[in-house]
Write a structure and sequence with these properties.
This protein is α/β, with parallel strands linked by helices. It has eight helices and six strands. The protein folds into two domains: 1-32, no CATH class; 34-214, Rossmann fold (3-Layer(aba) Sandwich), CATH 3.40.50. Strands 1-6-5-2 form a four-stranded parallel sheet. The protein has a two-stranded antiparallel ribbon with strand order 3-4. It is globular and about 50 Å long. The protein binds zinc ion.
Length: 222
């Protein structure tokens, strides 16, 4: 109660104070949020994917606060909403383990946390599925936002990740977690590494997905 008084909870999208009846989102955002629809976009190494929202307006602001404003407490509400979204799909059946697309050591050191890891851990708790670190970002890459087009982004990310804890990968159906899905270059490369290490299938869950029109404009800073 004291905590609620000292740090009154705010809507994770519009950042307004919540009433006692509201959790995570205010009524208005819950009604109006840009829910991501199922799309036909496919990625070579990803069996299925889903996202909670489109990456725009208050969603973009929320993710920026989460990644760059130290609001790491958003991981839990994101995970709760993502769990609800995933439970609406069939591709959660048979998932053995949850992992995430990690940031580099340097980024984690500077930020103090890995945004995708926190969501993955919270999601594992929500769904009762084990969470395991299966990927390592072994080199710092240029921000994808500084690059034009899918082919440059793909080249930038190639060789950036490697599999770790490799005994836990063969035959597994893995749910990969990330914050934003843009061109899919990062997620697809992570999935390729996991498949090469023997994973049976990779599904992807993200907080937000860019629409085709803002794919090249959005800032994919990790
Ligand atoms: Zn709101």
């Amino acid at each position: 109660m004291l905590l609620r008084f000292l740090f009154p909870p705010k809507c994770i999208l519009c950042h307004k104070l919540l009433t006692d009846e509201e959790t995570d989102l205010c009524h208005k955002c819950r009604e109006d949020m840009p829910v991501a629809k199922r799309e036909k976009r496919t990625f070579e190494f990803i069996a299925h994917w889903c996202a909670i929202w489109y990456y725009k307006d208050s969603v973009r602001d929320s993710i920026w606060r989460y990644k760059f404003g130290n609001l790491r407490c958003y991981a839990e509400p994101y995970a709760r909403l993502l769990a609800m979204k995933l439970l609406d799909t069939s591709f959660l059946d048979g998932i053995d383990v949850i992992t995430w697309a990690p940031v580099s050591f340097l980024r984690r050191f500077n930020r103090g946390y890995d945004q995708a890891e926190l969501i993955a851990v919270a999601l594992g708790k929500e769904l009762g599925i084990p969470v395991k670190r299966l990927l390592k970002k072994q080199r710092h890459t240029r921000a994808q936002s500084t690059l034009n087009g899918a082919s440059e982004r793909k080249a930038n990310i190639q060789g950036a990740y490697r599999a770790i804890n490799i005994a836990d990968i063969p035959g597994k159906n893995i749910l990969l977690v990330d914050d934003v899905l843009t061109t899919g270059a990062t997620s697809n490369e992570c999935a390729r590494i996991l498949k090469t290490a023997g994973a049976e299938s990779i599904c992807l869950a993200t907080v937000a997905v860019t629409t085709h029109s803002n794919q090249t404009k959005q800032n994919e800073r990790r």
